Amino acid sequence: MSADSRIEAITRRIVERSRPSREVYLERVRGQISKGVHRSVLSCGNLAHGFAACSVGDKAALAGDIIPNLGIITAYNDMLSAHQPFETYPALIRKAAAEAGGIAQVAGGVPAMCDGVTQGQPGMELSLFSRDVIAMAAGIGLSHNMFDAAVFLGVCDKIVPGLVIAALTFGHLPSVFIPAGPMTTGLPNDEKSRIRQLYAEGKVGRAELLEAESKSYHGPGTCTFYGTANSNQMLMEIMGFHMPGASFINPNTPLRDALTKEATKRALAITAQGNEFTPAGEMIDERSIVNGVVGLHATGGSTNHTLHLVAMARAAGIHLTWQDISDLSDIVPLLARVYPNGLADVNHFHAAGGMGFLIKQLLKAGFVHDDVRTVYGQGLAAYTIDPRLGPDGNVIRQPSPEESADPKVLARIDTPFQPNGGLKMLTGNLGKAVIKVSAVKPERQVIEAPAIVFHDQQELQDAFKAGTLDRDFVAVVRFQGPKSNGMPELHRLTPPLGVLQDRGFKVALVTDGRMSGASGKVPAAIHVTPEAVDGGAIAKIRDGDVIRLDAIAGTLEVLAPAAEFAARPAIVADLSANEFGMGRELFAPLRRVAGPADEGASVLY
After folding, report:
1. Is 223 marked within a binding site?
2. What fold does the segment set 423-599 form as a domain?
3. What's the pLDDT tens digit per position in 458-494?
């Protein structure tokens, strides 16, 4: 299947732009591959340390170069619902590896924090940087050079992007990502959102709010709304890092365990000792990255991936830009309505046809590249399936249906919910920003109103509670960028802004911070760069300046005389309150060297 000519053109320009860095990257990967099985370079003392805790049989096997050894990088902890199921995975993986004639060892653990727990709290200021810490921690685990392939156990917001960066940094190794799956459906997401707004208005108390939240987040697995965590799972499948159909099977089910065993055996099958060697650095290329971006648009995915996809691509020597992402959004139609872009959750999405149906529709229109490499060993068409549990306990795959089981949740390519993906880049005299409009009503996609400036999200909350925001305005929440305070998500601002919008006021948000994968019905220009702490134009805005946010034209402007605005001094804020507490002092070096949002807000590149 050939790709649409517009998709091909964007892919080609990414290839050309990336050529110098991609060639250097591939040369390094191939240099590592040429060294053969890496345990062979270890001294006897090195190797003895590496298998000291193994059984006698495993020690004998690892002493040679024949039996493949699988390194497990795990983000397990039992506080977070999405990662708690991973507790039992290492034993399952070791057993499956032994059945396939291999060995598996836990190479290392990485931190896994939850933005849901830290939302609006000081710990959120560590969240974005945890991505790069995870990449480095995984790198430490794999640096022992004991492994022929790796499997990565991770699900949520920064964890998967960090693990992908690590997998591509160790691009000479085959890498398979093994998910845990979403929790079963609880309180509907729109009802949860309604209770949050009532709480923000003071119409229900904390007890009612906690009851609603607990009914929404009620068991093991990923949160069921379509935020960054579930966008991650979509990406891993459409980019070929998952086994086909693996993304959205609930935890602690026979099919989930069967998929985990299958992924383990496949990881061992694609090592250099076999006939299907698939190193991650060669497998993932510009076409894979484009497929990921297309999947993000087709599903109305997380705005956080305008940061993460850029950083992930950079780890493979590929230079993806916001303009590429925005241009692809103009081409790719929205095919999924999953909260916050609709009422359904990811379980409903999977039941309607899920990833297999989605990929089949995108292939029909040529919106994704079929001629890519995947861990499954075939092109993307092999992912147009519906996974089932076979009578012998193994995974069987049936062709995905031709029709959606619920057209209100998952649409055909010829009857999309909207003609574009809804993620756009904004440009203007404030620099560059990103906006997600797939959940914003068309009449609210252009806002022109006076600015009210805040230097802290709590200031906006306090103003809302004081009743001083009952008017048309654009909330400018600045000094929230990566160098300022780690670029926290500002999702707690959604309820008060949503209340004001529901009261009939024209409201919008402009910030150099993030707004999370749950970006919803309020127009929000986020990731503004240059950020305020770097003297960006957002630091020049004053209360009362008229701001025009036009998501249709793709512009973000302060409507002030150009010469006067350019001559204004940038405000300098006292950020000392963000420098200590909850570990923030440990991250001061990262804040100093963080890159701009449009380059992934990374400390690594």
Report:
1. yes
2. Glucose Oxidase; domain 1 (3.50.30)
3. 999 999 999 999 999 999 999 999 999 999 999 889 8
